[in-house]
Amino acid sequence: MNFIKEMKSKHSSEFTLLLIFIGVFIVMGILSPDKFLTSNNIKTMAFQMPEFGLMSLAMMIAVLTGGINLSITTGAALSSIVAAFILSSEFGKSSPGLSVVVALAACMLVSVLTGVVNGTVIAYVGVAPMLVTLGTKTLFEGLGLNFTKGGSISGFPEVYSEIGNGTFLGIPIPLLLYVAVVIVSYFLFERSAWGTEVYMVGCNETATKFSGINTKKTLMLVYIYSGIMAGLASVLISSRYNSAKTDYGSSYMMQAVSAVVLGGTSIAGGHGTVAGTVIAVAIIQVISTGLNIWGVNRYIINIITGGILIAVLALRYITKVMEDRKKIKMRSAQSAAK
Description:
Strand 2 and strand 3 (171-172) form a beta hairpin. Helix 1 crosses helix 2 and helix 4 (39-64) packs across helix 15. This protein has helices at residues 2-10, 12-31, 33-36, 39-64, 72-87, 90-94, 96-125, 129-148, 158-165, 173-190, 193-203, 205-210, 215-241, 252-262, 274-293, 298-337; strands at residues 153-154, 167-168, 171-172, 243-244. The chain has one domain (13-319): ABC transporter involved in vitamin B12 uptake, BtuC, CATH 1.10.3470. Helices cover 80% and strands 2% of the residues. It is an all-alpha fold. The relative contact order is 0.17.
């Protein structure tokens, strides 16, 4: 009991989210036990959630600095398309193992380059992140469409599909990768000097700059890391579908923003935790899966996701206004007492 009380007091937001996740999971299980609680459905969620989770981490790191990355899905698609050309070539057919290694390296290189493009314009030119990433979103999508002519690229080596569909000791490989990335992200964001710089930039970039921190370098690394996360997600998506296309994973963009905000990351930057985002991803995944099981239209699911985002933002704003008013009243009372 003491442990629970301590955890609740220190991490009340994450604790509340965890309770919500448990509640939503139980409700979905009660409403559709013959479909939702089946091993096949749980396994399907274990394969799908890592893609969504990696996209959310890509979004979270940008939002922590007070920015945003609207190009995560199109940048991811472009990365997977470049890899797809290698995998579907004669080289991929003659040397499947080596071609997978080369394709993964190419995918990560393109992912880093998408981050460099965003980071350069945002950090060194000084253009607003929303405008930059909106522009690069269109740029990456255009490049992908030009390469694929609007179609998909398939015919990958069987070993590549194992990345997104295989298991290790009965555990889905995507889930193992996701857990490893979450752990690394936690230590990078919340237990490293660079992570502290990221939070400081999100709180006050000007003050951080005058404290001697190279804010431009910090922002550049933020968008490179965001690009890498999106690139890893693209590997899981393309290997699960065994093909690559420009619009694969496009729905994850809005869902990622929703998960980040629901997870407690401030849209203004400077506040948020990896644990909060991870739990929020699980909540949205469970809700989305449950609605799919009930045959709810995909567009209705998008409406619900957007509704959740608006509701959370409104609630956060109202809470902040009430806290500010409370502080003003306390200060007025203290001044009157003096």
